[in-house]
Design goal:
mainly alpha
């Protein structure tokens, strides 16, 4: 014998029926945290000057690491 039961309810109703906790507030907090980690937002905080900031970071990198192969510090 095969028995099929279709239940039409919202996720909130299903959670309440099964006795599961309401996680909406935790989910909202996680989603707000993820919004701060979007690539555009991260780049704006890391490089506030746009392309000028990238150039400055690149110059600092090359100054620190010697500018290429075998071009490091000679102490």
């Amino acid at each position: 014998m095969k028995l099929t039961v279709d239940i039409d309810c919202t996720p909130e109703e299903a959670r309440a029926f099964l006795g599961l906790p309401d996680v909406r507030t935790a989910q909202d907090a996680v989603m707000a945290g993820l919004a701060a980690m979007e690539p555009e937002a991260v780049m704006k905080t890391r490089l506030p000057l746009g392309l000028e900031g990238i150039e400055q970071a690149q110059k600092a990198f090359w100054a620190r690491f010697g500018g290429g192969l075998g071009g490091g510090r000679k102490d």
